[in-house]
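Renewal narrative, Specific Aim 1. Our central claim is that a sequence can be written position by position from structural information alone. The example that follows is taken directly from our test logs and has not been curated for this report. It begins with the structure tokens describing the chain, in the order in which they were read.
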């Protein structure tokens, strides 16, 4: 390839950790064609929106970001849409986002450098031909638009270079996609069926991370507990192998599905020192009828059995969840079952969202007699309960000493440092900015001085 001049890429990432990990992969791939990251859209030669489709709100956010970029970006710069909305909609998306030069789905990230080079060529040609829309970034010319979505999945996602934005902990994809078909969820459409990476590949990646100085890793999957089921293995086995890697001090995994979480997995977490006693297990609803219509394939009783076993083996474990409010037809009584379940479980944190109908999902076509106002009232009520429960749970950290991996200055207050305890709760730490460099990137002993539902405060223990 002929020598290329250095260029800048800006990526806005919406959605979950899968997208964050994909962003790091895109940055790694782009470095190979001399694109380097910038945090400023105005100076970027290429701006990428890594989109999320989980709720309508995320799609609206994508459009509003791109609209705002169009006002400030450099003449002759490129725009790409990646991620779940691109995968879901394919070329149809170009009718809605006219300025996109490149579309790239979640299954073909490794093709990004080729697509960028192709789009650069088309843009240069359009500018040379004095096509005014190309010169002024209006994007209504279709010649410069490259759109490529592979409908079928490749056998496996090829290994690609990664530019890690997270400097002190690292995401490691262990399983892609999801085999469940929850009736509200777009993820199977945007991420495809379950594909596990081999244990060897994962352990190799973790070993390289350890050599680079990473001490904490987060094993990722939409249904991480399904790890290995397609290749004759399981998550417990993977955890044991990753646990052997020298240099790694803390291991977390996300997101668990109650259906694939086994007692063996819980026992393995209890046994392995480096594995955080932290479980993110979305319940979605606390009523069996609603769970059935969601096609979640477990009952509230089964969910409670798992929680009880976790608490039996690890009384102090942290448990977090997700809940959907106002699923089509959810009655007030069914909603109250969810409220009661949250109180009984005693979550350390719980994400809540009003149900948002998604295209191509069964529930989107279902009748829904419950008004939007009623749903808003339910979520307000639920959020107050979640905060109360989480606040109560957080008190057990008060006056304890926690090992915190310090990530950097807090975004809200640069006089503070921020990091997470092993149980994943964010902690803000009072610390003279002159001393920040001494702690950033290191596991540090912190005494917890204040405990609230969503975050802790602490002081460094010398
Ligand atoms: N794989 C995980 C999480 C998937 S998406 C699981 O099975 O639990 C993350 C969260 O978004 C879900 O847990 C759910 O609470 C929420 N979510 C997914 N689809 C949604 C929709 N259509 N409307 C509202 N919330 C949704
Ligand atoms: Fe979506 Fe259900 Fe799969 Fe989770 S388990 S990603 S909610 S289909
Ligand atoms: Fe969103 Fe895609 Fe994740 S839809 S939540 S970014 S898998």
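The sequence written for that structure reads:
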């Amino acid at each position: 390839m002929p020598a290329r001049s250095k260029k800048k890429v800006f990526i806005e990432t919406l959605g979950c950790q899968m997208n964050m990990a994909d962003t790091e992969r895109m940055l790694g791939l782009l470095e190979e064609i001399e694109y380097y990251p910038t945090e400023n859209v105005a100076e970027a030669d290429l701006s990428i929106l890594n989109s999320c489709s989980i709720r309508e709100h995320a799609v609206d956010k994508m459009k509003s970001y791109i609209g705002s970029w169009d006002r400030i970006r450099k003449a002759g710069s490129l725009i790409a849409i990646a991620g779940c909305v691109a995968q879901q909609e394919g070329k149809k998306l170009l009718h809605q986002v006219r300025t996109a030069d490149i579309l790239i789905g979640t299954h073909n990230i490794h093709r990004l450098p080729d697509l960028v080079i192709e789009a650069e060529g088309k843009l240069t040609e359009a500018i040379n031909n004095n096509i005014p829309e190309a010169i002024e970034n209006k994007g209504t010319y279709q010649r410069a638009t490259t759109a490529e979505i592979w409908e079928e999945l490749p056998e496996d996602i090829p290994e690609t270079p990664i530019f890690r934005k997270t400097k002190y902990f690292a995401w490691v994809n262990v399983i892609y996609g999801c085999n469940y078909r929850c009736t509200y969820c777009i993820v199977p459409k945007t991420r495809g069926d379950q594909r596990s990476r081999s244990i060897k590949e994962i352990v190799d990646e973790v070993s390289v991370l350890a050599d680079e100085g990473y001490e904490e890793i987060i094993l990722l999957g939409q249904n991480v507990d399904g790890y290995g089921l397609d290749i004759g293995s399981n998550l417990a086995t993977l955890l044991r192998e990753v646990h052997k890697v020298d240099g790694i001090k803390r291991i977390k995994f996300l997101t668990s599905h109650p259906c694939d979480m086994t007692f063996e997995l819980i026992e393995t977490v209890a046994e392995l020192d480096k594995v955080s006693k932290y479980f993110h297990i979305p319940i979605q609803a606390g009523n069996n009828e609603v769970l059935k219509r969601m096609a979640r394939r477990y009952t509230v009783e089964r969910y409670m059995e798992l929680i009880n076993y976790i608490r039996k083996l690890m009384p102090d474990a942290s448990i977090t969840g997700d809940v959907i409010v106002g699923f089509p037809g959810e009655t007030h009584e069914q909603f109250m079952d969810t409220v009661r379940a949250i109180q009984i479980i005693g979550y350390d944190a719980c994400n809540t969202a009003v149900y948002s109908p998604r295209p191509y999902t069964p529930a989107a076509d279902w009748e829904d007699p419950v008004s939007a106002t009623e749903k808003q009232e339910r979520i307000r009520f639920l959020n107050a309960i979640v905060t109360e429960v989480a606040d109560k749970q957080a008190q057990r950290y008060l006056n304890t000493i926690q090992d915190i991996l310090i990530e950097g200055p807090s975004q809200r207050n640069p006089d503070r440092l921020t990091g997470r305890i092993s149980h994943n709760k964010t902690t803000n730490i009072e610390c003279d900015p002159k001393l920040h460099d001494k702690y950033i990137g290191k596991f540090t002993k912190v005494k917890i001085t204040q405990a609230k539902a969503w975050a802790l405060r602490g002081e460094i223990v010398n």
